[in-house]
């Protein structure tokens, strides 16, 4: 009896080490244009996301997560490289938003791909990797994937995902075929699942639209709510398939969103915001919470606790987290942390981000179109309005001390309605110094 108990105890003690010795599969789920509040597990009163709620119940959930930029392309580029936009150079969606966008993008992509990514790190260490959904930087081959959907060919209008954007809305067969192939090959795999959901066009199935259509509710709100649940359904289909293939036990599932969103009818211009620099709406492309905040969750049986923690998480953390899980050394100069390291999370004092012009990347000068920098420390968030060339109102401001700021207490005011810079100048000064030390932007 004692021998049996000893052997059982030994197996239980050694089992986690045995699991860790086998490289985990990485399933990266990325929603597109979804506000940080708009999930069941984030306690939204109306939107139903039962599949993501189920994932959250077995995940390390970090509700205080942030992206590096509140716009899809620079946000995704930061996730892949673990760098900020001013480091990897992708600051907006286009080099020139008014003409030949796909052609002008080619040299920009070439420069971007000189940076390491967690995709290339994994495939160079024996992983198979599949790209589906949103992907801006050329083809799946350009990105270092071994399989994929996006061709990125300018002559065929290849841009921001092209063929890959069909995933989810028209089924998951390319993804499930890849999972079949990887399991047959008995190789660890990375799955980049970034469906064009709940992004516009908001064309949900009729059954879901009817569910969310109510008297007094704006049509654009009902459509958006329905899209959020449609996205959740595709996540459920994917997770169920992984379960059927019996690979979830050694699979790390990561969830994040690229940037926030708000239905236009709920996001009207505030005339008072005009004084702040012209961009009035508080959603995608803005530095406010509805542009930059996202829940982040990680599920890896035997390695992550099922818990909800208040620690700050950031999109730049994904690269070091994935590398650590795979047992591979990431580049030494990455600014992020391993989110599975509780001590590193708890030691973090603040996070930062930027916001540039949406459709004008200045090749070689990423700060040329800079509009905002922001910092979160504890309950406080400071926004600094910069003076990139697209912001003519502030073109003569060359001194940090004169740059316009906004200060919010996120604990008391998560919707950022009460601006407090005048009553807390000492906090403004401290956070502004932190921002300047993090990214000392020169005057232009």
UniProtKB/TrEMBL annotation:
Keyword Ribonucleoprotein set for record: no
InterPro entries hit by this protein: Alkaline_phosphatase_core_sf, Sulfatase, Sulfatase_N
Molecular-function annotations in GO: arylsulfatase activity; metal ion binding
Domain Sulfatase N-terminal: 24-328
Highest rank taxon of the organism: Bacteria
Cofactor(s) recorded in Swiss-Prot or TrEMBL: Ca(2+)
SUPFAM superfamilies: Alkaline phosphatase-like (SSF53649)
Keyword list, A-Z: Calcium, Hydrolase, Metal-binding, Signal
Recorded family membership: Belongs to the sulfatase family.
Record-given protein name: Sulfatase
Lineage, broadest ranks: Bacteria, Pseudomonadati, Verrucomicrobiota, Verrucomicrobiia, Verrucomicrobiales
